[in-house]
């Protein structure tokens, strides 16, 4: 693995200049990527325009896309409230190109992370000789990815309509074959507040593995990626959001017999993080909820430890509020449910399963795309 200063030097040499902002470019937002010795994230990037970047930033026809990976290195102690580091590259593209990439470089190890025998004729990625596997030297890690071109927001003479990119990802545990995926969000700027999952969102909670009385061995976790008015800051991302269950004024969530059970906890996440569903419950509450139930999951921004709402007139972009119901939606939330065998509904199960749900934005979200 590269030392941090060596990697930073390599990036500076490859790019030639400091990173530039997204401005009015078309931007793809992959809100969660995971990289390890047994898990990788495969992303497909579709670009339909000639409005692209040169290899050091300024716009030019048929050139480069700007890839930015924000990540926490798990081996270095990721921590829910640690900031992400940023690594970015300008990588070759062409109009109507699709590039499928293994971000960890496990697959495509001798093709710069590019998969599926991409010829590299119209998009000369081979000649450019730049590594698309942005996470190759930071594994194990989790994070998020953005990709942008230089296309504007309105129709122009080459036929673009402002929405010129699309993307998909699947997170692949190649040891067992378990996988899950999602469609990337597409935006016209670095402001991705509109992509935050609706808060509150009702969530179903499966029986918890290892809890006395549970009929199933299922692990549930939430992948949380806070969003802001600038999702592509230079160097690092220290934006913070809070997640918690809060369902009624009497208590916090329901069991499977419609009883309100109180005793929940909050978790703060900076940049990106995995929050186990059980970590949002006190020990006493967890024992009473062995077979799960349902809850309203809140996710909202935090400013100086206080609940907050977005306020574009302030330099911080946030203003403290007195109640979570006044706070803005603050993070993209993905629920993952998985099992590596054991019991399912009281019956023996030897197979592995993996299921993920990305909770969508509020349809009435006021933020522009």
Whole-number total of structural domains: 2
Q: What is CATH's topology name of the largest domain?
A: Hypothetical Protein Tm1070, Chain: A
Q: SS-based structural class?
A: mainly beta
Task: Output mean pLDDT.
Answer: 82
- The helix/strand series, from N terminus to C terminus, equals HEEEEEEEHEEEEEEEEEEEEHEEEEEEE
Residue runs with pLDDT of under 50 for 5 or more positions: 1-24
Distance between the termini: 37 Å
Note the overall shape: globular
User: Largest sheet, described in full?
Assistant: 8 strands, antiparallel
- CATH architecture group name of the largest domain: Sandwich
Q: Can you count the helices?
A: 3
Number of strands: 26
Whole-angstrom Rg? 21 Å
SSE topology sketch:
Elements: H1 4-15, E1 27-35, E2 39-47, E3 51-53, E4 59-61, E5 64-73, E6 84-92, E7 97-102, H2 125-128, E8 141-148, E9 165-173, E10 178-183, E11 185-187, E12 201-205, E13 219-226, E14 236-237, E15 240-245, E16 253-255, E17 260-261, E18 266-270, E19 273-276, H3 283-288, E20 293-303, E21 306-310, E22 318-320, E23 331-339, E24 342-344, E25 347-349, E26 353-358
Antiparallel strand pairs: 1-8, 1-11, 2-7, 2-9, 3-4, 5-6, 5-8, 6-14, 9-10, 12-20, 13-19, 13-23, 15-18, 15-20, 16-17, 16-20, 20-21, 21-22, 23-26, 24-25
């Amino acid at each position: 693995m590269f030392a941090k200063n060596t990697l930073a030097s390599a990036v500076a040499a490859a790019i030639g200049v400091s990173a530039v902002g997204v401005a009015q470019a078309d931007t793809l937002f992959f809100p969660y990527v995971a990289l390890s010795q047994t898990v990788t994230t495969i992303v497909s990037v579709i670009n339909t325009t000639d409005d692209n970047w040169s290899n050091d930033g300024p716009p030019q026809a048929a050139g480069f896309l700007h890839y930015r990976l924000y990540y926490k290195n798990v081996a270095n102690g990721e921590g829910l409230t640690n900031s992400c580091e940023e690594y970015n590259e300008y990588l070759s593209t062409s109009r109507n190109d699709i590039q499928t990439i293994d971000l960890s470089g496990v697959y495509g190890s001798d093709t710069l992370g590019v998969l599926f025998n991409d010829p590299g004729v119209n998009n000369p990625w081979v000649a450019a000789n730049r590594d698309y596997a942005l996470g190759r030297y930071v594994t194990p890690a989790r994070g998020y990815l953005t990709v942008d071109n230089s296309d504007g927001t309105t129709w122009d003479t080459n036929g673009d309509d402002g929405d010129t990119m699309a993307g998909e990802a699947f997170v692949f545990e190649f040891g067992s074959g378990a996988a899950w995926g999602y469609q990337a969000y597409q935006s016209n700027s670095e402001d991705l507040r509109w992509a935050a999952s609706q808060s509150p969102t009702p969530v179903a909670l499966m029986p918890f593995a290892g809890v006395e009385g549970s009929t199933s061995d299922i692990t549930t976790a939430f992948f949380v990626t806070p969003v802001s008015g600038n999702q592509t800051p230079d160097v690092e991302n220290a934006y913070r959001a809070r997640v918690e269950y809060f369902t009624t004024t009497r208590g916090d969530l329901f069991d499977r017999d419609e009883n309100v059970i109180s005793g929940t906890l909050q978790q703060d996440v900076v940049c990106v993080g995995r929050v186990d569903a059980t970590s949002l419950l006190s020990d006493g509450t967890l024992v009473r909820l062995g077979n799960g139930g349902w809850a309203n999951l809140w996710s909202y921004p935090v400013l100086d430890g206080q609940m907050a709402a977005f306020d574009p007139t302030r330099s911080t972009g946030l203003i403290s509020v007195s109640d979570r119901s006044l706070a803005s939606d603050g993070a993209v939330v993905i629920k993952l449910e998985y099992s590596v065998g054991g019991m399912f509904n009281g019956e023996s199960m030897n197979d592995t399963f993996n299921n993920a749900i990305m909770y969508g934005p509020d349809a009435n979200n006021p933020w522009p795309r």
